[in-house]
Design brief:
With 130 residues, the chain is α/β, with parallel strands linked by helices. 20% of the residues lie in helices and 25% in strands.
Length: 130
């Protein structure tokens, strides 16, 4: 699906997404990634949802977000509290949602000027997409 940018052009905007990619400012990215409003798109060493551990949130905390969106792929998959404990301990709000919803929500929050970080896990081969 393609999205139209509403945020200022100097900020990152998700311009499209699919089951195995996310387009940021019209550039396609695959695999697990971390997205901030104003920095480069970063590879996230988290890999797939089943490989996610609490230590993977250190890269996200370094951005000092006020809110973290966790895109879990084509379907929403809740995470055990032990995995998201670093966010809770840092008093950072977070939402877990499917990656399509995380893309749309990221754009809305960036347009509002919020300090949001989106973290997307890699697509799991063979996982059905919505």
């Amino acid at each position: 699906m393609k999205l139209h940018a509403q945020a200022p052009s100097n900020l990152n905007t998700v311009t499209g997404y699919g089951p195995d990619h996310i387009d940021v400012n019209r550039l396609r990215h695959a695999g697990a990634l971390v997205l901030t409003p104003d920095g480069p798109v970063e590879a996230w060493d988290a890999g797939a949802i089943d490989q996610l551990q609490a230590v993977h949130f250190a890269a996200i905390l370094a951005h000092k977000p006020e809110l973290v969106l966790i895109g879990t792929g084509p379907t929403q998959r809740f995470l055990p509290p032990t995995i998201t404990l670093p966010l809770a301990q840092a008093r950072i709000g977070f939402e877990v949602m499917d990656s399509a919803a995380a893309c749309r929500t990221f754009n809305i929050l960036v347009a509002e000027g919020r300090r949001v970080v989106a973290a997307f896990v890699a697509a799991t081969p063979g996982e059905p997409h919505a």
